Amino acid sequence: MRQFEILVGRLKRGFSDQSMVVKGLRGVGKTVLLNAFENQAESEAFLTYYHELTPESVLARELARDSEKALTRLSLSERVGKSVREALGHMRTIRLTGPQGFGLEVDLRGADEGAVTSDLTDLFLQLGEAAQSKGRGVVFLLDEVQFADEIQFRAMISALHRVTQRSLPVTVAAAGLPQIPRLTGEARSYAERLFTFPTIGNLADDAATTALTGPARQQGVEYDPHAVASALRWTAGYPFFIQQLGKHAWNAASRSPIALADVDAAIPIAQEALDSSLYEVRVQRATPAERRYMRAMAELGGGPYRSGAVAGKLGKSSAALSQLRDRLIGKGLIYATEDYGYIEFSVPRFDEFMRRYMSYRQPPKLKK
Predict the structure, then answer these.
(1) pLDDT digits (tens, 9 = 90+) for 328-363
(2) How far apart are alpha carbons 53 and 50 in whole angstroms?
(3) In sequence order, what are the residues at sequence separation of 6 or more whose Cβ sits closer than 8 angstroms to the Cβ of residue 158?
(4) Bridge partners for 49 per DSSP
(5) CATH number for the domain whose boundaries are 288-357
(6) Where are the domains of the chain?
């Protein structure tokens, strides 16, 4: 939060700073953090635009729509507005739709990467100069950024690089799975200098204790120390687990302090709730073959998992399963770690769920 506050402050004063991509597993609070960034930026008179990306999202179209809204909200003078329109009039993939205003239409059919990059860069430059002329700024907030189209993601990075060089008040605050730094570096060689990649993960014991006991204390209810210790062991500091266990321990308790017995009674209920929501929803997005692949991962115990070892559990070569593995990565169910050739589940303890969810079938031995 402090890092983002400094970023906005520097942009507001006409200086450049690195944009942010928050990385972490699911359920650690990345989306909540983006919402907090949004509030912080708006308190400094920045215009903010939030998107949760999906595999079907067209990033360039979303950014163009946001830019259209921002240019309109800035209430530019006739002279500045005319200048912006003239500068945008030559674009090929992002076109003005009428003689007045800033209506923009995106058509990527047949467009090469160079055209998308050039147009998005010009759009960001005009948006940045317009915002700067009004003492404002623009923040694009992109959740699930790992789903962004590769070409359009590269184009956005190039556009952001140019406005950063010009110290214009346009920035990106994004959130995604842990593979984002690697993907960003592969997209543009200078991307690691353009972004910071803070990691959001499990809470340390003190913070986990506060997350569990703080909300109860606000209602005049305490936790027995033994109950807290049991909760910390089961949740391992994972924020969404703390949230679920705290909810069900509260429901189980009849008086203050919440006792060890209350927490122990809440654990199977919290686990059932997690299975039917956090885990079940995700496994239903997988095909039978993809589920078998994840079950083979789980058979190896805790991750990360070497792709070759998973393939061995299925009696096949790693190359033969590469497309299936890529589909799981594309769905956000697993991700490729920074160590080459290794994968991991995107949700903690998914291996435990898969062992509960389905049995493992030993593949037949290959005939010699």
Answers:
(1) 998 889 998 877 889 999 999 999 999 999 998 887
(2) 10
(3) 117, 120, 121, 188
(4) 140
(5) 1.10.10.10
(6) 2-196, 205-282, 288-357
pLDDT tens for 172-214 read 999 998 877 767 767 677 777 888 889 999 999 999 999 999 9
Distance CA 167, CA 16 (A): 5
Q: Which residue has the tokens 């690697």?
A: 182
Dihedral angle, C-alpha 54, 60, 63, 66, nearest 10 ° = -100
Task: Kindly give the interhelix angle for 205-218 and 239-252, rounded to the nearest 10 degrees.
Answer: 40
> Model confidence over 34-59: pLDDT tens digits?
999 999 999 999 999 999 999 899 99
What pLDDT does 194 receive? Answer: 87
Task: Kindly list the strands in the beta sheet with 342-345, ordered across the sheet, starting from the edge strand earlier in the chain.
Answer: 305-306, 342-345, 334-336
Is CATH 3.30.1330.10 the classification given to domain 2-196? no
pTM: 0.84
Please check whether residue 195 is in contact with residue 19, taking contact to mean a CB–CB distance below 8 angstroms.
yes
The two structure tokens encoding residue 182: 């690697």
CA-to-CA distance for 192 and 356, rounded, in angstroms? 40
- Angle between helix axes 239-252 and 260-274 (nearest 10 degrees) is 120
Average pLDDT, the chain: 91
- What is the rounded (10 degree) CA torsion for 61, 66, 69, 70? -140
Both tokens of 169, joined, read: 């008040």
Report in angstroms the alpha-carbon separations of 98 from 65, 105, 126, 368: 15, 10, 18, 71
Three-state DSSP at 111 gives: coil
Nearest residue to 241 via CA among 364, 347, 356: 347
- Amino acid identity for residue 74 in this structure: L
pLDDT digits (tens, 9 = 90+) for 113-152: 999 999 999 999 999 999 999 999 999 999 999 889 888 9
Phi, psi angle pair for 94, to nearest 5° = -125, 110
